[in-house]
Amino acid sequence: MKAPERFDHLFIEPSSFDATVAFYRDGLGWATRFAWGGDGQPRGIALAAAGIGVVIAERHPAADHSKSHGIEGHRPTVHVLVDDLDARHAELAARGLPLFPPEATHWGTRWFVVRDPDGNLIAYEERGATPT
Questions:
Q1: How far is CA 119 from CA 70, 73, 75, 80, in A?
Q2: What pLDDT, on the 0 to 100 scale, is given for residue 72?
Q3: Residue 86 lies in domain
């Protein structure tokens, strides 16, 4: 029996990185898991509390933001961990849902993304990939 899908984290690209970090970390008391950037590079931080994770990141250069950003601006992306990414992709591809085939990410997973009718993104990820 395959392991069930499980929530991993919410991704937010805020209008104000500092205010959003302050809200989640200082206001809600969520713990910092890891952070990156600074010194002229886009900043990001992963926070968690009670099994809930949020990744907050400044907009960063990318040739194609359609894989990581919703329609009509900056929407959160729900990230779901799966044990067999290729099988889940095949299942959803049969329904015409994935926006692109599974690929390695620079944060150490493999992923693909689907978009709901309102433009919200659901990213399916499998840990253990080599960062790009």
A1: 5, 10, 8, 17
A2: 47
A3: 6-127
